[in-house]
TrEMBL record:
<dbReference type="InterPro" id="IPR032675">
    <property type="entry name" value="LRR_dom_sf"/>
</dbReference>
<protein>
    <submittedName>
        <fullName>Uncharacterized protein</fullName>
    </submittedName>
</protein>
Length: 98
């Protein structure tokens, strides 16, 4: 994630089965132009840490197929609307576009 976060014009990112680690860390000012993020089928992902200045332009995002992820970044919890499809173990987090 640190390398992807440095791409200055990255606006849309979808990762599916692309990461086998347990932890995501998005450092300060990373993903500065990112507007949409979709994370899927990251079966080992347990935690996601997001610096307060990372992903500052994000307008919508979703996470699905991450059964070990127990918590989204605290900064997102206050603005996220959660639709949960328990039977499929899919979790979609979205917050309204401004």
């Amino acid at each position: 994630m640190p390398i992807l976060g440095k791409f200055p014009n990255l606006r849309h990112l979808e990762l599916s089965r692309a990461y086998k680690g347990k932890k995501f860390t998005c450092k300060g000012n990373g993903f500065g132009q990112l507007e949409t993020l979709r994370l899927g089928n990251l079966e080992n992902l347990e935690s996601w840490h997001l610096h307060t200045t990372a992903m500052s332009m994000l307008k919508s995002w979703s996470i699905f197929g991450c059964p070990e992820l127990k918590k989204i970044p605290e900064r997102m919890e206050h603005i996220a609307v959660l639709d949960c499809y328990q039977s499929q173990r899919e979790y979609y987090y979205r917050f309204p576009m401004n």
